[in-house]
C-alpha cells in the first residue's frame, strides 16, 4: 500500500526534474565566445624577439615613441562555454560575451579557422605595404617590406602596420616621428587605397591600449560609439576613415596646430 506524500514532499519530488534540467542547461555548451583585452605590440620595435617591420631597398630611420597594435583574446572555437560562463562574464567591463560566429567563421574546424586568420593577416600586411608605399610615392618594385607578428591573426592591424612603415621610412617628413614621442595605439583594417575599415572588440582593445601605456587611440570612425562604451581614463579617441585622415590627426597632435576630430 502506498503512503500519501505530504505537500512538502510532493513539491520536492516535482522539483527534482526541474533542478536536473537547470543543472544540465547550466553545463551545456553554448554558441558563444568570451573575450578579454589581449596583447599589444609596438610595430616600430620587436615582438617575441623579432623585428615587426623590416625594410630593404630604401634607407630607414631610428624612431622614438610607439605605435601599438592591439588585440583581443577569445575562448577558442572548440572551447566549451556554458550558461554559467556567459552569466559570470556578462556584466564585467573587462569581458565581452559574443556569438561564436562573430569571432570565428561558422562551421570551420580549428585548423581551417587558424588558416583563415593567417591568410587575413597576410592580406592585411600586403595592403598595408601597398598603402604606405603609395602614400610615400615609392615603388613596390624597389622597396621591400617584411612584416612579422607571431601568434596574431586577422586583418585589424592593417592601419598600424601602414603607419609603422611610413614612420620607419619618412617619419613626419621633417626628421621627426609620427608619434611625437607618444605611445599611440589603434586598430582598423586598411585597403591598398588607404581606406580604413571597422573591426571588432574595440571596447576591449582600448583597455589593452591604456594598460600598455597608450594615451591616444586611433579608431575607425564607424566604431566611435563602441569605443566610448568602456573608455579608460587618460585615453584619447581619434576617429579615422582613411590613412590621410590618420596622418593629418597625428600631425595636429604632434604640432598642436589644426583641429583634431573626436568621437
TrEMBL record:
GO molecular function, one term: serine-type endopeptidase activity
InterPro entries found in the cross-reference section: Lon_proteolytic (IPR008269), Ribosomal_Su5_D2-typ_SF (IPR020568), Ribsml_uS5_D2-typ_fold_subgr (IPR014721)
Record's keyword annotation contains Aminoacyl-tRNA synthetase: no
Domain Lon proteolytic residue range list: 153-236
Record keywords: Signal
SUPFAM superfamilies: Ribosomal protein S5 domain 2-like
Signal sequence bounds: 1-25
Gene Ontology annotations of biological process type: proteolysis
Coiled coil regions, renumbered to chain: none
Any Pfam family matching the protein: Lon_C
Protein name: Lon proteolytic domain-containing protein
The species this protein was found in: Streptomyces yokosukanensis
Amino acid at each position: 500500500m502506498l503512503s500519501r506524500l505530504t505537500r512538502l514532499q510532493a513539491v520536492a519530488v516535482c522539483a527534482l526534474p526541474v533542478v536536473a534540467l537547470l543543472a544540465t542547461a547550466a553545463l551545456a555548451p553554448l554558441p558563444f565566445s568570451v573575450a578579454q583585452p589581449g596583447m599589444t605590440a609596438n610595430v616600430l620595435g620587436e615582438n617575441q624577439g623579432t623585428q615587426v617591420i623590416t625594410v630593404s631597398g630604401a634607407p630607414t630611420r631610428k624612431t622614438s615613441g610607439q605605435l601599438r597594435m592591439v588585440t583581443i583574446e577569445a575562448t577558442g572555437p572548440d572551447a566549451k562555454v556554458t550558461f554559467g560562463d556567459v552569466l559570470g562574464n556578462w556584466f564585467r567591463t573587462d569581458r565581452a560575451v559574443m556569438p561564436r560566429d562573430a569571432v570565428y567563421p561558422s562551421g570551420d574546424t580549428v585548423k581551417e579557422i587558424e588558416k583563415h586568420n593567417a591568410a587575413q593577416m597576410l592580406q592585411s600586411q600586403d595592403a598595408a605595404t601597398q598603402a604606405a608605399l603609395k602614400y610615400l610615392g615609392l615603388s613596390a618594385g624597389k622597396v621591400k617590406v617584411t612584416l612579422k607578428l607571431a601568434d596574431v591573426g586577422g586583418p585589424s592591424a592593417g592601419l598600424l602596420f601602414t603607419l609603422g612603415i611610413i614612420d620607419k621610412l619618412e617619419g613626419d617628413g621633417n626628421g621627426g616621428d609620427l608619434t611625437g614621442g607618444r605611445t599611440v595605439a589603434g586598430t582598423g583594417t586598411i585597403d591598398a587605397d588607404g581606406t580604413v575599415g571597422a573591426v571588432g572588440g574595440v571596447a576591449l582593445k582600448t583597455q589593452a591600449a591604456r594598460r600598455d601605456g597608450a594615451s591616444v587611440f586611433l579608431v575607425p570612425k564607424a566604431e566611435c560609439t563602441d569605443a566610448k562604451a568602456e573608455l579608460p581614463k587618460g585615453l584619447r579617441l581619434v576617429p579615422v576613415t582613411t590613412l590621410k585622415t590618420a596622418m593629418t590627426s597625428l600631425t595636429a597632435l604632434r604640432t598642436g596646430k589644426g583641429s583634431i576630430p573626436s568621437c
